[in-house]
Structure formats: structure tokens, C-alpha cells
Amino acid sequence: MTQDEHCPEIMVVDDDPDALSILVRYIKREGFAAVEACSGAQCLLLAGQHPPDVILLDLMMPEMDGFAVCRALKADSATAEIPVIMLTARDDVEARAEGMELGVSDFITKPIVRRELAERINAQLDMLAASRANFATLDQLNRSKLSGSKKL
Amino acid sequence: METEGNMAVASQLSTADAAWRSAPEHTLIGSHPTIAKLRVLMERVAPTDTTVLLTGESGSGKEIVAREIHALSRRSMRNFVPVNCAAIPNELMESEMFGHQRGAFTGAALPRHGLFSLADRGTIFLDEISEMPLQLQAKLLRVLEDGLVRAVGSDRAIRVDVRIIAATNADLVTAVKKGRFREDLFYRLQVVPVVVPPLRERRSDIPMLVDFFLERNRDRFDGQWSITREAMVHLWSYDWPGNVRELENLIERLIILSDGPMIDVSLLPENLRKGHCGLAEAQMTAEIGEGGVDLNALVRELEGRMINEALKLAAGNKQAAARLLGLKRTTFSAKLRRCGVIASDTSD
To answer: Tell me, what's the pLDDT at A90?
Structure first.
């Protein structure tokens, strides 16, 4: 069985300390646990050690930008399924197209509106909850050894 | 025995079902991890014959899931009978479901088979089960418990072998608490609960679905269509409150509207083109629609956009950005914090 009552962990990745602290405050106010990463490299390291439920990833970062981080996350089976929400000040079609093609789960354009941020995160958490519920059903079926035309 | 009504439905059903079977494209489309897991569950549950309760938003594909479970089961060569409980008037529902005897009520000139008889040895799909009237819920519970159905006006129950897949887009737990849905039936139905996620939670499947619907319409409209990358981005960014069904309908409309083989942004409905541009462009006019406006939200949105724009123009320099907006640096910083604007990154 999965833990139903676990507090969702949201990793926030941003090189700008001000932006990072605002985002973390938002996340905590929504009742989530926040994990901070100030670079793409740190995000990959932390996510590899302990995968969060959702990653909020800033696009424009020095050295390794959001796309590169996302590519690396998707390439590693341990982190490939973590939903990534990309944050960007650029709302150009090209950036969205690249995110779409990389398998980003959602996209938020700055300025960040708290309500929108919460909605987008919650959508991914709902998806994870649905997956967990379906997995629990599957697990229950497997335990019950139900097969053929036997009825529960 | 001469019967009325449902036999016509039966012949339609078998034709429709034959067409369905020969159209393998009617499957759950997507490669999102949540869909991959759902598929494993469907394959596991299909051969068991148990009752399944599907929960998911309208248009998310519950009927497709039900059809696939049926197709993967040993009942696949028999009827799959879809029933929308919300579409049948309450007073007719019992006779529709269980059939009636001649003269059972005014207008019942001939006996009639019910949908449960049509689904014998097959699967009945009870969509929008939460809309079923309480009195009929009691009868459904009896079918589930002993497999017997009794036609209206008949004193003889007949045995049917029907697999029940029920679906709801409403919260059945709440309906139970409010007394609108029988608790015992709820537990009996949700032996195997299956959740079908809405499209916006698996956005990465949108391009695959778009290509699939474009391809499927090739033969139907005798032509071949593709979509520009920019238009695809707009489809991907939209939240799809009507889920896969809304996307499917839109693609069909775009094909009909398009002049050539390429579907571009100009063909997209306005709400979709503006979907990810925030409220501002759509609502910065002084119009107040039927639903009213949230002035505070609009003002905040405009403020946020202005601050962001100023920061962009000032290359991230807060002092300069404040000047551009005629604000003091401290006021600007306070607004920055309050609006949740995070300075556009200037680091690279």
C-alpha cells in the first residue's frame, strides 16, 4: 500500500536566491514540503538521492539551463517519471515547443500567480494520486490471486 | 416471441460493435506513465469478470477503458452495451434496463427486452451511475447479488450473466453521504476501483493524440492533414476541460475548417490561442461578461505584467525598473513581493 497521508514534496530549482525564497514560501503556504536546489546540478543530485513528487524548474539558469536539467532527469530511469513544471519569463512559442518535446508536464510563465502555481502543482499531485490508487487496486488484485471467471 | 424497441437497438448494437471491433484504433492512446500503469491494470482486471467502477472527468475516456476491458475479456465476442444513466428519463429507466411485459403499463403494447438481456454473456457499461434513481439502485443491487432480472410487469425473474462496468464523473462518496446513492451498492460496485486521469494531468500525451485523430480522419474526409509546431504548442498548453473528447471534436472541426493540408494557429479558436497568455490580453478591455470579473485579480495581473516588462526593459535592474513605472524603489520592491513577480533571469 502507498502512504496516503504523506506530505507532497516539491523541489524548487532556481539560481536566483530571491526567486527561490519566494517560491519556497508559496509552496509551504500551500501545505507542501519544499526542497531547495540552487542549480541544475544540485537538482539532479538531490532528485537522484530522493525523488521529490514534483519539480518546479526555472528555465533560465547559468551553466545548465532548465532544458538541459530536464533532459538529464528524463534520461535517468530513477527520475524520468517525476513531473517537471517549467518556470519561465519567456513565454515564446519556441520555449514551450522545446518543453513540450522534452516531456515537460506543464509550463508556468512569470509573473507567477500563486493560485495558478498551486493549480498546476495540484494537477500533477492528482495525477500521482490516481496512479497510486490504480496501483493499489492492481496490488490488491494480485494479492487476491483473482483470475478466470471467479468473482470477488 | 414478438418484441418491440430494443431489438432495433440490438441490431444497431451488433453493427456498431462489429465496426468497433474492426477499428482497433479505439484504444486508450498515450504513453504517459499514468496511462502505462492504467493499461497494466486494465489487462489484469479484464479476465476476472469482476465489477469495475471507473472514476474520471467527463470526456477523459472512461468508455474507451470500459470497451478495452470488455475487448480483453472472454466476453469480447458478446455485446458491449453502453448505457448513459443520465440520458434515460427516470420513469423509463427500469423498463429500459430490465425490459417489460406486454401491458405492463400504458403504451406497452408489446413485450420488450431490457438492456441487461442484450448484454447477457457480455458487458453492460453503466455510465453516469450517480444519476440512477434510488429505487432502481435497489434493483441493480439485486442483479449484482443474485444475477436475476425481472421485467416490468413480470412475476418471473430470469438469470443473466452480465459483467457490470460502472462509471462516474461525480464523487460517489459524497453522493452516498448525502443519501443520493446507496452505500451498499457503492461498495458492491467499487470492488475494483479504476481512476482515469484528465488530459491536463497527462499533457505529454496531447501531441500523440493530435496525430492519432488527424490520422484517423484521413479516410473519413479523404485527405491528409498535419499541424504546425506552433499550433501544436497551443493545443499542448490548453487545459482541456472537456478532455480527450473535446480534443477529438476540435481536431475534426479544424479539418473541416482548413483550406489545405496544414492546420495552423489562425484556425484555432480564440480561447485556445490565448490560453497560456494569462488573463491580461483576453480581459484587459473594460468589458464585463455575464459571469462578472474579478477586478482585484485583473489589477494584480496587470501590475505583475507591467513589473515584469519593466524588469525586462531594465535588464533586471530594480532601481531602473521602478523609475520606468514612476514608482519609488521601495514601493516597487513591495509590489514585486506582493504580486509574486520573480524577476526575469538575467544570469545568462
So the answer is: 66
